[in-house]
Amino acid sequence: MLRMVVCVKQVPDTTEVRIDPETNTLIREGVPSILNPFDAHATEAAVQLKEKYGGHITALSMGPPQAAEALKKCITFGVDQAVLLSDRAFAGSDTLATSCAVTAGLRKIAQEDGLDLVLCGKQAIDGDTAQVGPGIASRLGFPQITYAIGIDKIELDQRTIKVHRRLERGIETVQAPLPALVTCVEEMNELRYASLPNMIRAARYKPEVWTAADLDVDEESLGLHGSPTVVARIFAPPEREPGEMIPGGADDPAGAAASLLDKLLEHLAAGAGE
Amino acid sequence: MAKKNKPTLQIEAEKCIGCELCEAECPFDAIHVVDGVAVIDYEKCKVCRKCITVCPTDCLYLEGVEEGEEEKQPEIAVSTEAGEYSGVWVFVEQEDDQVHPVSWELLGRGRALADTLTCELAAMVLGHNVQAAATESGYYGADRAYVIDDPVLQRYRTAPCASGCITLIRKYKPEIVLVGATTLGRDLAGAIATELQTGLTADCTGLDIDQETNLLRQTRPAFGGNIMATILTREDRPQMATVRPRVMEALPRDESRSVATVAEPLGITEDQIATKITGFQPDTDLDAPNLQYAEVICSGGRGLGNPAGFKLIQELADAFGGVMGASRATVDAGWISHDHQVGQTGSTVRPRLYIACGISGAIQHLVGMQTSDIIVAINSDPNASIFNVADYGIVGDLYQVVPELIRLAKERNLKEALLGQTTSG
């Protein structure tokens, strides 16, 4: 029996965030919210582990009330229960404050149900920080195993886990004692289609909501108060000077290609002389 | 004396960009972004002015306040503790006696920061038999190297390495700590910052010192690169940031520079570490690591139309002596592996020459390649945003233009020409 928690985040589908070319502002309306893709792989990993070893899975998220949708998505994967940490006290959290609140949620789950394994996505696609997973591991004092591409095996008797990690120059295999925290990359697994019973269950499911008052945590370490970093300024990215259009691409591709090569060689020669 | 009308918060809606910073800052749940514009809930607003301080476009203001009065907002004091901290540190990442070049790039930037602050630049070197790396850090600009040399650190593991770094930071109190945003660096930095309960800003593309406060201004792309945000760690120390490879520039290696070495013990033995490395399978496909440091990159996008189009891109890359890149759309579609992805969620690259074929130029792609020396774009859509950043653009069918380019590049032996240029330049 493996008691698992998957930490997930609802994110805007950042590939669809656009700038209005006329007003130069962000178009936020109509941008769909999705379950962070890496977290989907972490959820699937938990479900596969449950199928193999037996166990219980809780999906845990922090966010506004509408983040319940991401948790319902987890239910379609086959997660047993879902908890949403939602409170104004959490608003404006940076990664340090986020890991504080999520850790408090994990401690509560651990007290009530026990905890062997925490699974996270390697990072969220909106912030790309990859900092919350290690932050949680550090606070809980769990070994952290980041960039996992596969869970080799879990020895329930010895209470160990063996994981393959994707590093820049190869694949590393590590063994750590349970409880542990694993962050997953997309190579971890292929997502499956949700089963009909799980979809029906998800449609009706209402995640439990915990506020700051439900957690054993110092409010000073949450939200804006608990965030050492502040956003001082926001500005448009600097633009590169537009360059030269080489004509003829449509009716004389060979000519255009030749002209491009001439210019490139000239440009490179000038650069080398600097 | 000012009239005692109760001040109210107002908004110039035309200036609002809907960034939601005010919404996040408001302690009273009194301001919300609705349809891209901030809306004030006057029932809840306590006129605390916090939203005004964070608004990037200055679209929020108070009405019913006399001139000058609004200046009386409480300044966030820099804690006295910050004064004890001094020095800019760079974590030197190394594996199998090889230092990751991002470490030297960070020393290059760190040198400028340390000079502005008139403090020391130090390298933090942890590993086994790392004296050579410590000496080398001096050649790249470090004044001092803090070294922990221990067999336990032979191969990187989070717990012992983080513990060593934390010991050094607590003892010597650097003001700034920079770490490469690599797989290893991201694993490490989050663990250190959490234990030290300090701020950590990921993937910075700009680092400089605020002249008034001496704070580290950490600039990074947000919202998929649509906007840039400058982040400060006001009170907690050290101020920590990660930076991707190829974003900063290393100083030229100077063997005449020497470095003072300070050695410290790790204080942990192997039997105290629960995590064991039981195997390592090195990659045989060397394409991926080459992308970041490639001098020439030829990339394909959705305009290829199908996965087979990457054969043509590979041929182009071969003709130019470069490596093959790809846009996120093609990776998401499963046309090519993630190793080739350039952009916000892929690699940041800075080649001498970047050729984008059939890439529209989504912002998340541009943030990963726009510091390339020369950018060439080939696209059938004359309005593609890639042309806004390209030095040279050709509007046309890539399946007509690229084969010509390959033929001519081979004929004129461009590979050799580029090789000569890049080694001398």
Describe this structure in words.
The complex is a heterodimer of chains A (274) and B (425). In chain A, a hairpin with a 6-residue loop joins strand 3 and strand 4 (26-27). Chain A has helices at 37-53, 68-77, 95-113, 132-140, 196-204, 253-273; strands at 2-8, 10-12, 18-19, 26-27, 33-35, 55-62, 81-85, 117-121, 144-155, 160-167, 170-177, 180-184, 208-210, 229-235, 244-246. Chain A is globular. Chain A has two domains: 2-221, HUPs (Rossmann fold, 3-Layer(aba) Sandwich), CATH 3.40.50.620; 240-274. The longest helix of chain A has 21 residues, at 253-273. The mean pLDDT of chain A is 91. Chain A has six helices and 15 strands. Helices cover 28% and strands 25% of the residues of chain B. In chain B, strand 18 (296-300), helix 8 and strand 19 (323-326) form a beta-alpha-beta unit. The N and C termini of chain B lie far apart (67 Å). Strand 11 (170-177) of chain A pairs antiparallel with strand 17 of chain B.
